[in-house]
UniProtKB/TrEMBL annotation:
Keywords on record: NADP, Oxidoreductase
InterPro entries linked to this entry: DHFR-like_dom_sf, RibDG_C, Riboflavin_Biosynth_HTPR
Functional pathway: Cofactor biosynthesis; riboflavin biosynthesis
Name of the protein this chain belongs to: Bacterial bifunctional deaminase-reductase C-terminal domain-containing protein
Annotated ranges, domain Bacterial bifunctional deaminase-reductase C-terminal: 84-257
Amino acid sequence: MGVVTQAEQDAAAESAAAAWLALLAAAGRGTAVAGTAEPAPPEAAGWLCRDADGGWQMRPSLPQAARDLVSLYLPLCTDDADGWVVGHLGQSLDGCIATHGGDSCFVTGPDNILHLHRMRALCHAVIVGAGTVVNDDPRLTTRLVPGPSPVRVVLDPRGRLATEHRLFQDEAAPTLLCTAEHAQPTTPPGAAGLLALPTDDDTGLRLDALVTALAARGLTRLFVEGGGVTVSRFLAAGLLSRLQIAVAPLLIGQGRPGLSLPRTERLADALRLAPRIFRMGADMLYDLDLSPADGGCTDGAEMAAGALADAGGVLMRVL
Ligand SMILES: NC(=O)c1ccc[n+]([C@@H]2O[C@H](COP(=O)([O-])OP(=O)(O)OC[C@H]3O[C@@H](n4cnc5c(N)ncnc54)[C@H](OP(=O)(O)O)[C@@H]3O)[C@@H](O)[C@H]2O)c1
Protein backbone atom coordinates (compact mmCIF):
# COMPACT_ATOMS: atom_id res chain seq x y z
CA MET A 1 0.00 0.00 0.00
CA GLY A 2 1.39 3.43 -0.98
CA VAL A 3 1.99 6.40 1.30
CA VAL A 4 -1.14 8.48 1.87
CA THR A 5 -0.46 12.13 1.12
CA GLN A 6 -1.78 15.04 3.17
CA ALA A 7 -4.00 16.06 0.25
CA GLU A 8 -5.52 12.55 0.13
CA GLN A 9 -6.09 12.63 3.90
CA ASP A 10 -7.80 16.03 3.63
CA ALA A 11 -10.01 14.82 0.77
CA ALA A 12 -10.98 11.70 2.77
CA ALA A 13 -11.83 13.82 5.84
CA GLU A 14 -13.88 16.19 3.69
CA SER A 15 -15.90 13.42 2.04
CA ALA A 16 -16.47 11.71 5.41
CA ALA A 17 -17.68 14.99 6.91
CA ALA A 18 -20.11 15.56 4.02
CA ALA A 19 -21.35 11.97 4.18
CA TRP A 20 -21.95 12.39 7.91
CA LEU A 21 -24.24 15.37 7.30
CA ALA A 22 -26.20 13.34 4.74
CA LEU A 23 -26.54 10.47 7.24
CA LEU A 24 -27.76 12.81 9.95
CA ALA A 25 -30.39 14.20 7.62
CA ALA A 26 -31.43 10.68 6.55
CA ALA A 27 -31.86 9.82 10.24
CA GLY A 28 -34.03 12.92 10.73
CA ARG A 29 -31.41 14.32 13.08
CA GLY A 30 -30.11 17.06 10.79
CA THR A 31 -31.89 20.07 12.22
CA ALA A 32 -29.06 21.09 14.50
CA VAL A 33 -26.36 20.89 11.86
CA ALA A 34 -23.96 23.81 11.71
CA GLY A 35 -26.52 26.48 12.47
CA THR A 36 -28.49 25.98 9.26
CA ALA A 37 -32.21 26.65 9.54
CA GLU A 38 -33.20 23.94 7.06
CA PRO A 39 -31.09 20.78 6.84
CA ALA A 40 -30.03 19.82 3.33
CA PRO A 41 -31.94 16.75 2.11
CA PRO A 42 -29.77 13.61 2.25
CA GLU A 43 -29.89 13.29 -1.54
CA ALA A 44 -28.56 16.82 -2.04
CA ALA A 45 -24.87 16.07 -2.02
CA GLY A 46 -25.36 12.88 -3.99
CA TRP A 47 -24.34 10.55 -1.13
CA LEU A 48 -27.63 8.69 -0.68
CA CYS A 49 -30.69 7.80 -2.70
CA ARG A 50 -34.04 6.16 -1.98
CA ASP A 51 -34.38 2.43 -2.65
CA ALA A 52 -37.50 0.68 -3.95
CA ASP A 53 -38.86 0.22 -0.40
CA GLY A 54 -38.51 3.91 0.41
CA GLY A 55 -35.43 3.36 2.59
CA TRP A 56 -32.02 4.90 2.01
CA GLN A 57 -29.19 3.35 0.09
CA MET A 58 -25.68 4.40 -0.74
CA ARG A 59 -24.98 5.75 -4.20
CA PRO A 60 -22.37 3.75 -6.09
CA SER A 61 -18.93 5.24 -6.61
CA LEU A 62 -18.68 7.14 -3.35
CA PRO A 63 -15.14 7.96 -2.17
CA GLN A 64 -13.87 5.19 0.14
CA ALA A 65 -13.95 7.29 3.32
CA ALA A 66 -17.60 8.21 2.70
CA ARG A 67 -18.44 4.62 1.77
CA ASP A 68 -17.09 3.27 5.05
CA LEU A 69 -19.03 5.79 7.08
CA VAL A 70 -22.26 5.24 5.17
CA SER A 71 -22.09 1.44 5.40
CA LEU A 72 -21.61 1.59 9.19
CA TYR A 73 -24.38 4.06 9.97
CA LEU A 74 -26.96 3.64 7.20
CA PRO A 75 -28.70 0.67 8.90
CA LEU A 76 -29.48 3.08 11.75
CA CYS A 77 -31.02 5.73 9.49
CA THR A 78 -34.40 4.06 9.22
CA ASP A 79 -37.78 5.69 8.83
CA ASP A 80 -39.60 2.93 10.69
CA ALA A 81 -41.35 3.73 13.92
CA ASP A 82 -40.00 0.61 15.68
CA GLY A 83 -36.60 2.16 16.18
CA TRP A 84 -33.59 0.26 17.50
CA VAL A 85 -31.58 -0.45 20.63
CA VAL A 86 -27.81 -0.61 20.14
CA GLY A 87 -25.40 -1.61 22.92
CA HIS A 88 -21.72 -0.63 22.74
CA LEU A 89 -18.65 -1.52 24.77
CA GLY A 90 -15.01 -0.62 24.21
CA GLN A 91 -12.89 -3.39 25.63
CA SER A 92 -9.33 -4.63 25.87
CA LEU A 93 -8.06 -7.82 24.24
CA ASP A 94 -8.58 -9.52 27.60
CA GLY A 95 -12.23 -8.48 27.76
CA CYS A 96 -12.08 -5.56 30.24
CA ILE A 97 -13.82 -2.19 29.89
CA ALA A 98 -11.90 -0.52 32.73
CA THR A 99 -9.24 -1.29 35.32
CA HIS A 100 -10.25 -2.97 38.57
CA GLY A 101 -10.51 0.49 40.16
CA GLY A 102 -12.74 1.82 37.37
CA ASP A 103 -10.28 3.81 35.22
CA SER A 104 -11.54 3.66 31.64
CA CYS A 105 -10.12 6.83 30.05
CA PHE A 106 -9.50 5.61 27.48
CA VAL A 107 -9.69 1.95 26.57
CA THR A 108 -10.26 2.61 22.88
CA GLY A 109 -8.66 5.25 20.67
CA PRO A 110 -9.90 8.56 19.24
CA ASP A 111 -11.63 7.03 16.21
CA ASN A 112 -13.86 4.92 18.46
CA ILE A 113 -14.57 7.90 20.72
CA LEU A 114 -15.67 9.80 17.60
CA HIS A 115 -17.90 6.83 16.77
CA LEU A 116 -19.52 7.11 20.23
CA HIS A 117 -20.34 10.76 19.58
CA ARG A 118 -21.81 9.85 16.18
CA MET A 119 -23.95 7.15 17.78
CA ARG A 120 -25.18 9.69 20.33
CA ALA A 121 -26.14 12.04 17.49
CA LEU A 122 -28.12 9.30 15.71
CA CYS A 123 -30.02 8.06 18.75
CA HIS A 124 -32.90 9.68 20.62
CA ALA A 125 -31.64 8.59 24.04
CA VAL A 126 -28.31 7.37 25.44
CA ILE A 127 -28.49 5.03 28.42
CA VAL A 128 -25.83 4.36 31.07
CA GLY A 129 -25.72 2.57 34.41
CA ALA A 130 -25.01 4.17 37.78
CA GLY A 131 -21.50 2.64 37.84
CA THR A 132 -20.52 4.62 34.75
CA VAL A 133 -21.79 7.88 36.19
CA VAL A 134 -19.89 7.30 39.46
CA ASN A 135 -16.61 6.48 37.71
CA ASP A 136 -16.63 8.66 34.61
CA ASP A 137 -18.94 11.57 35.43
CA PRO A 138 -19.80 11.60 31.69
CA ARG A 139 -21.59 14.37 29.79
CA LEU A 140 -22.91 12.10 27.01
CA THR A 141 -23.17 14.96 24.50
CA THR A 142 -22.13 15.23 20.84
CA ARG A 143 -19.23 17.62 21.39
CA LEU A 144 -17.05 16.07 18.69
CA VAL A 145 -19.50 15.88 15.78
CA PRO A 146 -22.33 17.88 14.19
CA GLY A 147 -25.70 16.62 15.42
CA PRO A 148 -28.01 17.01 18.39
CA SER A 149 -27.26 15.55 21.81
CA PRO A 150 -29.68 12.81 22.86
CA VAL A 151 -31.79 12.60 26.01
CA ARG A 152 -29.55 11.15 28.75
CA VAL A 153 -30.99 8.23 30.71
CA VAL A 154 -29.31 6.97 33.88
CA LEU A 155 -30.22 3.65 35.54
CA ASP A 156 -29.90 4.18 39.26
CA PRO A 157 -32.32 1.72 40.87
CA ARG A 158 -31.49 2.68 44.45
CA GLY A 159 -31.25 6.44 43.85
CA ARG A 160 -27.65 6.38 45.09
CA LEU A 161 -26.10 8.95 42.73
CA ALA A 162 -25.02 12.36 44.00
CA THR A 163 -26.69 15.39 42.43
CA GLU A 164 -23.30 16.96 41.66
CA HIS A 165 -22.66 14.76 38.63
CA ARG A 166 -22.26 16.83 35.47
CA LEU A 167 -25.20 15.39 33.57
CA PHE A 168 -27.56 16.37 36.37
CA GLN A 169 -26.22 19.93 36.44
CA ASP A 170 -25.05 21.07 33.01
CA GLU A 171 -28.45 21.23 31.25
CA ALA A 172 -26.64 20.29 28.04
CA ALA A 173 -29.49 17.89 27.17
CA PRO A 174 -32.63 16.59 28.88
CA THR A 175 -31.79 13.96 31.50
CA LEU A 176 -33.88 11.22 33.07
CA LEU A 177 -32.99 9.39 36.27
CA CYS A 178 -34.57 5.91 36.38
CA THR A 179 -35.06 4.39 39.79
CA ALA A 180 -37.01 1.45 41.15
CA GLU A 181 -40.59 2.39 41.98
CA HIS A 182 -40.02 1.73 45.67
CA ALA A 183 -36.84 3.87 45.75
CA GLN A 184 -38.22 6.96 44.05
CA PRO A 185 -36.47 10.07 45.46
CA THR A 186 -38.77 12.94 46.41
CA THR A 187 -36.75 15.57 44.55
CA PRO A 188 -35.01 14.95 41.24
CA PRO A 189 -31.25 15.57 41.12
CA GLY A 190 -30.42 18.92 39.51
CA ALA A 191 -32.26 19.45 36.24
CA ALA A 192 -33.08 15.77 35.72
CA GLY A 193 -36.55 14.29 35.42
CA LEU A 194 -37.56 11.13 37.27
CA LEU A 195 -38.81 7.87 35.80
CA ALA A 196 -39.97 5.14 38.19
CA LEU A 197 -39.68 1.61 36.83
CA PRO A 198 -41.01 -1.73 38.02
CA THR A 199 -38.43 -4.30 39.11
CA ASP A 200 -38.17 -8.05 39.21
CA ASP A 201 -36.12 -10.11 41.61
CA ASP A 202 -33.63 -11.52 39.12
CA THR A 203 -32.78 -8.66 36.82
CA GLY A 204 -33.51 -5.51 38.77
CA LEU A 205 -35.13 -2.70 36.80
CA ARG A 206 -37.50 -4.01 34.12
CA LEU A 207 -35.74 -2.89 30.97
CA ASP A 208 -38.71 -3.79 28.76
CA ALA A 209 -40.74 -1.29 30.83
CA LEU A 210 -37.98 1.28 30.30
CA VAL A 211 -38.04 0.80 26.50
CA THR A 212 -41.84 1.14 26.52
CA ALA A 213 -41.75 4.26 28.71
CA LEU A 214 -39.14 5.89 26.47
CA ALA A 215 -41.13 5.01 23.34
CA ALA A 216 -44.16 6.71 24.89
CA ARG A 217 -42.00 9.86 24.98
CA GLY A 218 -41.06 9.45 21.31
CA LEU A 219 -37.62 8.04 22.15
CA THR A 220 -37.33 4.90 20.01
CA ARG A 221 -33.66 4.90 18.96
CA LEU A 222 -31.71 3.95 22.05
CA PHE A 223 -27.95 3.74 22.51
CA VAL A 224 -26.79 1.76 25.56
CA GLU A 225 -23.28 3.12 26.13
CA GLY A 226 -22.26 1.12 29.17
CA GLY A 227 -21.02 -0.11 31.38
CA GLY A 228 -20.69 -3.86 31.24
CA VAL A 229 -23.49 -4.62 33.70
CA THR A 230 -25.98 -2.44 31.86
CA VAL A 231 -25.19 -3.67 28.34
CA SER A 232 -25.20 -7.28 29.60
CA ARG A 233 -28.66 -6.87 31.10
CA PHE A 234 -30.06 -5.39 27.90
CA LEU A 235 -28.53 -8.27 25.94
CA ALA A 236 -29.78 -10.93 28.36
CA ALA A 237 -33.27 -9.38 28.22
CA GLY A 238 -33.27 -9.81 24.43
CA LEU A 239 -33.75 -6.08 23.91
CA LEU A 240 -30.71 -5.25 21.77
CA SER A 241 -31.16 -5.03 18.02
CA ARG A 242 -27.41 -4.53 17.53
CA LEU A 243 -24.37 -5.08 19.70
CA GLN A 244 -21.17 -3.18 18.97
CA ILE A 245 -17.94 -4.29 20.62
CA ALA A 246 -14.81 -2.26 19.92
CA VAL A 247 -11.68 -4.26 20.71
CA ALA A 248 -8.51 -2.29 21.51
CA PRO A 249 -5.00 -3.77 21.39
CA LEU A 250 -4.64 -3.40 25.14
CA LEU A 251 -4.20 -5.86 28.01
CA ILE A 252 -5.64 -4.61 31.30
CA GLY A 253 -5.56 -7.66 33.55
CA GLN A 254 -8.35 -8.43 36.04
CA GLY A 255 -10.27 -5.28 35.24
CA ARG A 256 -14.01 -4.63 35.11
CA PRO A 257 -15.61 -7.13 32.77
CA GLY A 258 -17.36 -6.23 29.54
CA LEU A 259 -20.19 -8.65 28.84
CA SER A 260 -21.17 -10.92 31.67
CA LEU A 261 -23.80 -13.46 30.65
CA PRO A 262 -25.30 -16.66 32.03
CA ARG A 263 -23.05 -19.72 31.64
CA THR A 264 -23.25 -21.99 28.57
CA GLU A 265 -22.22 -25.63 29.10
CA ARG A 266 -21.77 -26.69 25.48
CA LEU A 267 -20.08 -24.58 22.84
CA ALA A 268 -22.74 -25.75 20.39
CA ASP A 269 -25.27 -23.82 22.46
CA ALA A 270 -23.24 -20.61 22.47
CA LEU A 271 -24.47 -17.64 20.49
CA ARG A 272 -22.33 -17.33 17.37
CA LEU A 273 -22.87 -14.08 15.55
CA ALA A 274 -22.29 -12.84 12.03
CA PRO A 275 -20.25 -9.64 12.35
CA ARG A 276 -19.55 -6.68 10.20
CA ILE A 277 -16.07 -5.53 11.16
CA PHE A 278 -14.88 -1.95 10.90
CA ARG A 279 -11.40 -0.72 11.53
CA MET A 280 -11.17 2.34 13.78
CA GLY A 281 -7.53 3.37 14.01
CA ALA A 282 -5.84 0.61 16.01
CA ASP A 283 -9.21 -0.75 17.23
CA MET A 284 -11.65 -3.15 15.56
CA LEU A 285 -15.38 -2.61 15.88
CA TYR A 286 -17.55 -5.73 15.71
CA ASP A 287 -21.03 -4.64 14.65
CA LEU A 288 -23.46 -7.49 15.31
CA ASP A 289 -27.01 -7.50 14.05
CA LEU A 290 -29.18 -9.27 16.62
CA SER A 291 -32.56 -8.62 15.01
CA PRO A 292 -34.42 -11.89 14.38
CA ALA A 293 -35.52 -10.76 10.89
CA ASP A 294 -31.92 -10.86 9.70
CA GLY A 295 -31.07 -14.11 11.33
CA GLY A 296 -28.30 -12.49 13.38
CA CYS A 297 -26.47 -15.76 14.05
CA THR A 298 -24.55 -18.06 11.79
CA ASP A 299 -22.55 -21.23 12.16
CA GLY A 300 -18.82 -21.61 12.43
CA ALA A 301 -18.32 -22.44 8.77
CA GLU A 302 -19.99 -19.24 7.67
CA MET A 303 -17.91 -17.30 10.15
CA ALA A 304 -14.70 -18.78 8.85
CA ALA A 305 -15.68 -17.90 5.31
CA GLY A 306 -15.45 -14.19 6.06
CA ALA A 307 -11.84 -13.22 5.54
CA LEU A 308 -10.38 -10.21 7.28
CA ALA A 309 -9.21 -8.08 4.40
CA ASP A 310 -6.23 -5.79 4.57
CA ALA A 311 -7.56 -2.62 6.17
CA GLY A 312 -6.36 0.50 4.43
CA GLY A 313 -8.80 3.18 5.59
CA VAL A 314 -9.37 4.89 8.90
CA LEU A 315 -12.54 2.89 9.24
CA MET A 316 -13.24 -0.05 7.00
CA ARG A 317 -16.03 -2.53 6.59
CA VAL A 318 -14.57 -5.97 6.11
CA LEU A 319 -17.45 -8.44 5.94
N1 LIG B 1 -15.06 0.91 27.94
C1 LIG B 1 -16.36 1.16 27.87
O1 LIG B 1 -17.03 0.95 26.83
C2 LIG B 1 -17.06 1.70 29.08
C3 LIG B 1 -18.33 2.29 28.92
C4 LIG B 1 -18.97 2.75 30.06
C5 LIG B 1 -18.37 2.63 31.30
N2 LIG B 1 -17.14 2.08 31.39
C6 LIG B 1 -16.51 1.83 32.69
O2 LIG B 1 -17.18 0.72 33.22
C7 LIG B 1 -17.32 0.85 34.63
C8 LIG B 1 -18.79 0.83 34.97
O3 LIG B 1 -19.38 -0.33 34.41
P1 LIG B 1 -20.16 -1.35 35.31
O4 LIG B 1 -20.47 -2.51 34.49
O5 LIG B 1 -19.38 -1.54 36.57
O6 LIG B 1 -21.45 -0.52 35.73
P2 LIG B 1 -22.65 0.14 34.89
O7 LIG B 1 -23.22 -0.82 33.90
O8 LIG B 1 -22.27 1.49 34.41
O9 LIG B 1 -23.68 0.37 36.06
C9 LIG B 1 -24.18 -0.77 36.72
C10 LIG B 1 -25.18 -0.33 37.74
O10 LIG B 1 -26.27 0.33 37.09
C11 LIG B 1 -27.47 -0.07 37.71
N3 LIG B 1 -28.19 -0.90 36.70
C12 LIG B 1 -27.92 -1.07 35.41
N4 LIG B 1 -28.84 -1.85 34.82
C13 LIG B 1 -29.73 -2.17 35.77
C14 LIG B 1 -30.92 -2.93 35.79
N5 LIG B 1 -31.41 -3.54 34.71
N6 LIG B 1 -31.54 -3.07 36.95
C15 LIG B 1 -31.08 -2.47 38.03
N7 LIG B 1 -29.97 -1.72 38.09
C16 LIG B 1 -29.32 -1.57 36.96
C17 LIG B 1 -27.09 -0.89 38.95
O11 LIG B 1 -26.92 0.05 39.96
P3 LIG B 1 -26.78 -0.36 41.53
O12 LIG B 1 -25.37 -0.78 41.68
O13 LIG B 1 -27.10 0.88 42.28
O14 LIG B 1 -27.74 -1.46 41.78
C18 LIG B 1 -25.79 -1.50 38.48
O15 LIG B 1 -24.95 -1.94 39.49
C19 LIG B 1 -16.69 2.14 35.00
O16 LIG B 1 -15.37 1.89 35.43
C20 LIG B 1 -16.67 2.92 33.71
O17 LIG B 1 -15.57 3.81 33.71
C21 LIG B 1 -16.48 1.60 30.32
